[in-house]
C-alpha cells in the first residue's frame, strides 16, 4: 500500500475502534484490538516496501513502530485490569510444602505487578528478536577432529597437528595447547552463536533441536537445565485439562537442582579458558550481575541492552524470592525481609540508564521509538507525549521527511488509543500532536480524513476543522466544500458551527489580504471586471453558511459585511456577484431588523443600479437606423425605463437608505463608518446618473428637463440631508460639480428661446 493508503488504513482502524469505544475488551483484544490492527498494518507495509526495495531507513523506522504497537498490546491489557492479590509462594508452601518450584515461581511473579510486566517485556523482546541462524548440517560429532584422532591412533602419532587426543566435550579446554580441527572449530563457533541467538529469541526448543542435530545431546541437556522443576500431580495450582493430558500430569519435568545448575552456568561464563561464544551462551542461560559484563559485550542493538538488563532483573528477583522461602521441600533458606519499593526504585534506575547507552548497530538509544518503548515500559506515557511535543516545538525533524510523518502518525494514534481505553493524556500536548498530524494529512492531501482527527481535539475540534476548510481556499469547488462540511457531521462535530466558524475565519483571512476600504473615495468602474483571487476568496466565503437553512441568519450578517466591503472599494460588479450566489431564503429573514433592513437596502440599490445601466443601454439603441414604428416602440420603452428609474431613485433618496441610527453614529464603529462611506460614494453617483439621463433624454422627452431640476430640489431638501453625502474631506468636490450640472440644465431650458430667464425654474415648480 502507498503512504496515502496507509493513512486511510490507520484512519479505518481508528473509526472501527471509536465505534466500539465502550467495549474495552474489544479494544484490547490480542487479535482484533486497536494495537494489533496497527501492528498488522505496519507489517503489511514493511513487506511491500521490502518487495519494492525501498529505503532501508524507512523500513527500519516502520519496523520500530510495529514493535512499539506490539509492546503496547503486551502491557496495556494488564494495566487496565485490576491487580487482584493471589496466594503468595509462602502461603502455598503453608498449604503444601511439596509445591514445586515452577508453581512457587509463578506465585512470586503474581505478587508483583512490576515483575509481571518485566517478564512480559522480556517475552516481547524475544518475540521481536532476529530469527536465529540455522547451523549447517553435519553428519557427525566433530567429524574432522575424529578423523584425525583415529588416523593418529593408527599411526601411533597421538599428537598430530596439535589436535586434541580425546573427543569428550571438555577435551579442548582440558588439553592445554590443543584444539579441534579448523572445520570443527568453525562449526562449533557457528553453532554456539546460533544457540545464543535462540536463547536471545526465547526459542529454547530450537536450541535443543540444533544441539541434537549437531550430535551434542549433552549440550541440549545443559540448555534444558534452565527449566524450573514442575510436578503437576503434587501442585496446588489448577490444571488446564485441554493443555495437559492426565498421564502427563503424573510425571515431573524440569530441573530439580536448578540452583546448582545456575551456579555452574555462572562459573562456566566466568571461565576464561572457554571460548567467548561458550561463555556468552552460559551467561545468557543464567543471567546475573556476575555475568552482566559478558552479556553486555555481545550487545549490538539497543534491544539487546534492554533484554540483558531485564533478564538479569527477572532472574535475580525470582532467585531471591525463592531463596527466602521457608518450609519448602524443594527450595528455600532463611527468610528475610525485602523492601519491595526499594527494589522497584532500583529497577527503574537501572532501566533509566538505557536512555543513553551506546549501541553498535541500528537506531540509537535516543531514537524516538526507543525512547517511546522505554517510557511505555516504565508507564510514563504522560512524560513521553510531553517530550515528543517538545521535539515538535523545537522542530527537530524536517516536516517533509518520512520520519516526521510516521512519528506524528504514531503519536497521534497513541494519544487517541490511550483516550479510547480511558488512560488520561496531557491535554495541551495531545492537542499539539494531533495538530501536527492534521498538518501532515493536509500536506498529503488526505482531505476525507481531516474531520475524523479534528474531531478528537475536543473543545478545539470545530476551530481546527474550520481552519482546514479555510485552507481549501479556491482549490475545491462547491460540491467538494459541501462534502467536506458534511464530513464534520459524520465525525461528531457540530456541522453548523463548523460552517459559521469557517466562514468567519475565511472572511478574516480575506480581509488580511485585501486593501482596507479607507482614504479617498474610489472611482466606480462601470465596465465588468472579474474579481481578483483575493476578492473571489472573500466572495466564496459565503458558501459555507448558505449550504443549510440553519445558518442563513449568520449568512445574512456575513453578506452585509462582504457587501459593505465591496461597495466601499467601488467593486459594484463583485458585490452583484455575491447577490447572485445567495439563496432566496435570505430575503425572508426579518430578525434582527437592523440586519434584515440593511440587506434589503442593498437589494434595493442593485435594482436601481441595473435599471440605470439598462436605460443607458436603451439610449444607445436610439442611435441605430430604425423604422417609424420601431422608433415609436423604442421611445415608449425608453420612456418607461426612465420613468421607472426616476421613481426608484427618488424613493431611495427620500428614505433613510443605509442611514445609521443615532446610537450607531455615536459609537462610530466600523460598520457605521462603512455605511457612511457607501452613502458618500453612491448617493452622489446615482444622482449624477439620473440627472444626466434626464438631461440627455430631453430631446425625446422634454418634461425630463423639469424632472432634472426637481431632482435638485430633493438634493437641497434639509429633510433628507443628501448634500452631506456630497461632502467628503478625502473625496472630490462633487457638490460643486453637481451644481455646475444643474446650471447646465438651467441653461438647457433656454435652448428653445424666450426672453424670460426664470421660465425653466417656473416650469419645474
Oligomer: single chain
Beta content comes to: under 5%
Which percent range fits the helix content? 55-70%
Can you summarize the main beta sheet? none
- Distance between the first and last residues' Cα: 86 Å
* Backbone shape: elongated
Strand runs, count: 0
Low-pLDDT parts are 241-247
GO cellular component, one term: nuclear membrane
Protein name: Nuclear pore complex protein
Keywords: Membrane, mRNA transport, Nuclear pore complex, Nucleus, Protein transport, Translocation, Transport
Family: Belongs to the nucleoporin Nup84/Nup107 family.
Key attributes of the depicted protein:
single chain; 765 residues; 63% helix; elongated; mainly alpha
Please tell me about this protein's structure.
With 765 residues, the protein is mostly helical. It has 36 helices and no strands. It is elongated, with a radius of gyration of 45 Å. It starts with a helix and ends with a helix.
Secondary-structure map with pairings?
Elements: H1 3-19, H2 24-27, H3 34-51, H4 56-79, H5 89-95, H6 101-110, H7 113-127, H8 143-155, H9 171-174, H10 182-200, H11 204-213, H12 217-224, H13 246-249, H14 258-269, H15 276-285, H16 292-297, H17 302-323, H18 340-352, H19 368-377, H20 381-393, H21 402-420, H22 427-443, H23 447-454, H24 461-471, H25 478-490, H26 495-513, H27 533-539, H28 552-568, H29 572-581, H30 593-621, H31 628-653, H32 662-667, H33 670-696, H34 703-716, H35 734-748, H36 759-764
GO molecular function, one term: structural constituent of nuclear pore
Family: Belongs to the nucleoporin Nup84/Nup107 family.
Main location: nucleus
Amino acid at each position: 500500500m502507498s503512504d496515502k493508503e496507509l493513512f486511510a488504513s490507520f484512519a479505518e482502524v481508528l473509526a472501527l475502534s471509536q465505534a466500539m469505544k465502550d467495549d474495552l475488551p474489544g479494544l484490547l483484544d490480542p487479535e482484533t484490538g486497536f494495537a494489533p490492527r496497527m501492528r498488522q498494518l505496519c507489517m503489511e507495509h514493511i513487506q511491500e516496501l521490502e518487495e519494492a526495495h525501498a529505503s532501508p531507513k524507512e523500513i527500519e523506522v516502520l519496523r520500530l513502530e510495529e514493535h512499539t504497537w506490539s509492546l503496547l498490546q503486551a502491557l496495556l491489557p494488564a494495566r487496565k485490569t485490576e491487580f487482584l492479590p493471589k496466594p503468595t509462594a509462602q502461603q502455598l508452601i503453608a498449604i503444601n510444602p511439596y509445591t514445586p518450584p515452577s508453581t512457587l515461581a509463578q506465585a512470586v511473579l503474581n505478587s508483583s505487578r512490576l515483575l509481571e510486566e518485566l517478564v512480559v517485556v522480556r517475552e516481547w523482546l524475544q518475540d521481536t528478536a532476529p530469527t536465529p541462524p540455522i547451523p549447517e548440517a553435519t553428519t557427525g560429532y566433530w567429524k574432522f577432529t575424529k578423523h584425525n584422532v583415529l588416523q593418529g591412533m593408527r599411526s601411533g602419532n597421538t599428537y598430530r597437528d596439535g589436535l586434541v587426543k580425546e573427543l569428550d566435550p571438555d577435551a579442548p579446554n582440558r588439553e592445554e595447547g590443543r584444539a579441534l580441527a579448523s572445520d570443527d572449530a568453525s562449526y562449533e563457533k557457528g553453532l554456539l552463536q546460533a544457540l545464543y541467538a535462540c536463547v536471545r529469541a526465547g526459542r529454547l526448543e530450537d536450541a535443543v533441536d540444533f544441539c541434537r542435530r549437531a550430535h551434542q545431546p549433552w549440550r541440549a541437556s545443559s540448555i534444558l537445565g534452565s527449566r524450573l522443576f514442575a510436578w503437576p500431580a503434587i501442585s496446588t495450582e489448577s490444571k488446564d485439562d485441554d493443555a495437559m493430558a492426565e498421564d502427563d500430569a503424573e510425571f515431573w519435568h524440569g530441573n530439580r537442582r536448578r540452583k546448582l545448575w545456575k551456579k555452574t552456568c555462572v562459573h562456566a561464563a566466568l571461565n576464561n579458558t572457554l571460548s567467548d561464544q561458550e561463555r556468552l551462551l552460559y551467561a545468557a542461560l543464567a543471567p546475573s550481575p556476575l555475568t552482566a559484563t559478558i552479556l553486555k559485550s555481545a550487545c549490538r542493538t539497543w534491544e539487546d541492552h534492554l533484554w540483558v538488563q531485564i533478564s538479569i532483573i527477572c532472574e535475580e528477583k525470582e532467585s531471591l524470592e525463592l531463596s527466602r522461602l521457608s518450609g519448602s521441600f524443594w527450595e528455600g533458606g532463611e527468610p528475610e525481609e525485602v523492601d519491595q519499593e526499594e527494589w522497584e526504585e532500583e529497577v527503574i534506575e537501572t532501566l533509566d540508564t538505557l536512555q543513553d547507552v551506546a549501541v553498535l548497530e541500528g537506531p540509537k538509544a535516543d531514537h524516538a521509538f526507543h525512547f517511546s518503548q522505554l517510557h511505555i515500559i516504565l508507564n510514563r506515557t504522560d512524560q513521553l507525549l510531553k517530550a515528543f511535543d517538545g521535539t515538535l516545538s523545537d522542530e527537530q525533524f524536517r516536516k517533509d521527511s518520512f520520519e516526521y510523518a510516521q512519528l506524528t502518525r504514531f503519536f497521534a494514534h497513541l494519544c487517541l488509543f490511550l483516550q479510547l481505553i480511558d488512560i488520561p493524556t496531557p491535554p495541551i500536548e495531545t492537542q499539539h500532536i494531533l495538530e501536527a498530524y492534521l498538518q501532515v494529512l493536509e500536506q498529503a492531501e488526505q482531505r476525507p480524513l481531516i474531520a475524523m482527527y479534528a474531531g478528537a481535539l475536543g473543545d478545539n475540534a470545530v476551530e481546527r476543522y474550520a481552519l482546514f476548510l479555510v485552507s481549501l481556499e479556491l482549490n475545491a469547488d462547491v460540491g467538494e466544500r459541501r462534502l467536506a462540511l458534511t464530513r464534520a457531521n459524520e465525525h461528531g462535530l457540530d456541522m453548523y458551527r463548523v460552517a459559521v466558524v469557517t466562514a468567519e475565519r475565511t472572511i478574516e483571512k480575506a480581509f488580511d489580504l485585501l486593501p482596507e476600504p479607507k482614504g479617498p473615495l474610489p472611482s466606480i468602474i462601470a465596465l465588468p471586471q472579474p474579481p481578483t483571487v483575493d476578492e473571489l476568496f472573500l466572495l466564496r466565503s459565503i458558501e459555507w453558511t448558505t449550504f443549510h437553512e440553519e445558518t442563513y441568519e449568520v449568512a445574512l450578517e456575513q453578506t452585509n459585511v462582504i457587501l459593505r466591503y465591496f461597495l466601499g472599494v467601488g467593486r459594484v460588479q463583485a458585490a452583484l456577484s455575491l447577490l447572485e450566489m445567495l439563496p432566496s431564503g435570505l430575503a425572508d429573514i426579518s430578525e434582527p431588523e437592523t440586519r434584515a433592513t440593511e440587506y434589503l437596502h442593498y437589494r434595493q440599490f442593485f435594482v436601481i443600479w441595473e435599471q440605470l445601466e439598462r436605460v443607458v443601454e436603451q439610449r444607445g439603441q436610439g442611435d441605430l437606423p430604425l423604422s417609424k414604428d420601431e422608433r415609436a416602440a423604442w421611445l415608449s420603452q425608453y420612456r418607461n425605463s426612465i420613468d421607472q428609474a426616476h421613481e426608484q431613485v427618488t424613493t431611495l433618496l427620500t428614505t433613510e437608505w443605509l442611514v445609521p441610527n443615532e446610537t450607531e453614529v455615536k459609537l462610530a464603529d466600523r460598520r457605521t463608518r462603512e455605511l457612511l462611506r457607501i452613502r458618500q460614494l453612491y448617493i452622489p453617483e446615482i444622482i449624477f446618473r439620473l440627472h444626466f439621463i434626464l438631461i440627455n433624454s430631453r430631446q425625446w422627452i422634454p418634461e425630463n428637463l423639469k424632472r432634472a431640476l426637481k431632482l435638485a430640489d430633493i438634493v437641497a431638501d434639509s429633510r433628507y440631508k443628501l448634500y452631506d453625502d456630497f461632502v467628503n474631506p478625502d473625496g472630490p468636490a462633487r457638490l460643486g460639480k453637481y451644481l455646475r450640472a444643474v446650471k447646465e440644465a438651467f441653461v438647457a431650458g433656454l435652448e428653445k428661446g424666450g426672453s424670460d430667464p426664470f421660465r425653466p425654474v417656473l416650469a419645474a415648480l
